[in-house]
Amino acid sequence: MNKVLIVDDSATMRKIITRVLRQAEIPCNTVLEAGNGVEGLAKLASDPDIDLILSDINMPEMNGVDFVKAVRTAHAKEKLPMIMVTTEGGEAMMKNALDLGANGYVTKPFTPESIRAALEAYLG
Amino acid sequence: MADAGAGSRGLPGDDVLHEALEHAVAEVFSTMVGKFETLAVDVAAALPARGLAHVHFDREAVVEFRGVLEGHVTIRCNADGALDIARGLLMLDAGDSSLSIEEINDALKECANMVTGHVKTRVLDPLGGCQLSVPFVNSVATSAAAARDRMLLYKLQQGVISVEIWRREATATAA
Question: Could you tell me the pTM of the whole model?
Answer without folding.
Answer: 0.85
